[in-house]
Design brief:
about 400 residues; Growth Hormone, Chain: A; about 0% strand; globular
């Protein structure tokens, strides 16, 4: 009997997933957020409705982002993070280019709404990829998230320089530049394999919510929402408080914002030494408590240098919340897309409620009162998590 030919060997090794494109996505998100933080007063004046209208625009945009984000994790699971990131970056780039050309006030209102709604899915997919690779290494995950803050510091510096040199319209140049970078990364990602980059199971958004409930992680999601509210609030209203209430100029506002993002970046990099869950939890409690103190200083002290220091403390302290909570819920999950999408959607409720609520409070009672509300939210963060940890410790014991 003739010997059968051996079947051709099937390749068993897939290319090793790359983290560099994920880091690039965090940098691009940071560049956009940093330039936005510095140019908020110019956008507010162009809209013409004061902090209330700006808050409404952000609430509508982030509400839309929360809806879109509900499918972001599902998209990452079904398509894989590589294709999902390329797609979401392309959509965001198109919106950012349109926003850079949009006339005020109606076109600008729509541009703000669509820009943040389109940025949300990019954020979700980047978080899915980073969490899939590093959830069991909270220190390394925090360092990857530090690249967002580094990008935001650069974005704040560039936008501040443009505003100082060219005037109120120049923030539009920053939007266009970020769009170009997003297109370049979208093209590069198509040929790369990211963590959880291959298509996975067709799980729905509801499955992520069920996991949150089944594993008693809903308090973690509530804390995530509080952290998102504070981090977004510091970015949105902190520089506005400095420039309009404390009477700081554009360079002081931009420098303070840049320092806040830089300190947040350094805090996240320093947190890279975290090796245990207990250490990560301690950093969470200390960081959010420091953020609450910084916000109190920003709201109550009408001295520019001291208020600017409060902004820096607030930004640095709250910066640890996002990556360490992602690590908390992502441990041991090779494909955390549905769960990260669910957590992000719940967390975005804080981003949705925050701008409109703080804007309305600022319109009625003044911006310092709105900043005090952010301080209260930052103070509630460690309380919610502490109660959750005690409850889970009793159950496991």
């Amino acid at each position: 009997m003739p010997e059968q030919a051996a079947a051709p060997a099937l390749p068993t090794d897939r290319p090793r997933p790359e983290l560099r494109p994920v880091v690039g996505a965090f940098v691009i998100i940071g560049l956009f957020v940093g330039s936005w933080a510095v140019s908020i007063p110019e956008v507010e004046r162009a809209l013409g409705g004061g902090p209330g209208l700006l808050g409404v625009a952000l609430t509508v945009s982030l509400g839309l982002a929360a809806v879109v984000n509900a499918g972001g994790g599902v998209l990452a699971e079904r398509l894989g993070t590589s294709r999902a990131m390329s797609l979401t970056l392309g959509v965001f780039a198109a919106v950012a280019v349109g926003g850079s050309l949009a006339p005020a006030p109606v076109g600008l209102f729509l541009a703000v709404v669509l820009a943040f709604a389109a940025l949300g899915p990019v954020d979700v997919v980047a978080n899915v990829a980073a969490t899939a690779a590093l959830a069991d290494q909270p220190g390394r995950l925090t360092r990857v998230h530090a690249m967002f803050n580094g990008g935001a510091a650069v974005g704040a510096a560039v936008a501040g320089g443009l505003l100082f040199l060219l005037g109120a319209w120049s923030w539009r140049l920053a939007w266009a530049a970020v769009a170009v970078l997003a297109v370049a990364l979208a093209a590069a990602v198509r040929n790369r394999v990211l963590p959880a980059g291959h298509p996975g199971e067709h799980v729905g958004f509801a499955e992520g919510i069920r996991i949150l409930r089944r594993e008693r992680l809903l308090p973690v999601a509530v804390a995530f929402a509080l952290g998102a509210l504070v981090e977004g609030g510091v970015t949105t209203w902190g520089v506005l408080q400095l420039r309009e209430q404390v009477d700081a100029g554009v360079l002081v506002g931009a420098t303070s914002s840049m320092l806040g993002f830089t300190i947040a970046c350094l805090v996240r990099l320093a947190s890279g030494r975290i090796a245990t869950r207990r250490g990560a939890r301690l950093v969470l409690v200390v960081g959010t408590s420091v953020s609450a103190v910084g916000l109190l200083v920003l709201a109550l002290v009408p001295v520019t240098a001291v208020a600017a220091a409060g902004l820096v403390l607030a930004a640095g302290g709250i910066s640890v919340s996002w990556p360490l909570l992602m690590s908390e819920i992502g441990r041991g999950r090779p494909r955390p897309g549905a769960l990260v999408g669910a957590l992000s959607s719940v967390g975005y409720i804080g981003l949705v409620i925050g701008p409109g609520l703080i804007g309305l409070v600022a319109g009625w009672f003044g911006l310092p009162v709105g900043i005090l509300l952010l301080a209260l939210s930052a103070g509630a963060f460690p309380v919610v998590l502490g109660l959750h940890w005690r409850s889970t410790a009793r159950l496991s014991g």
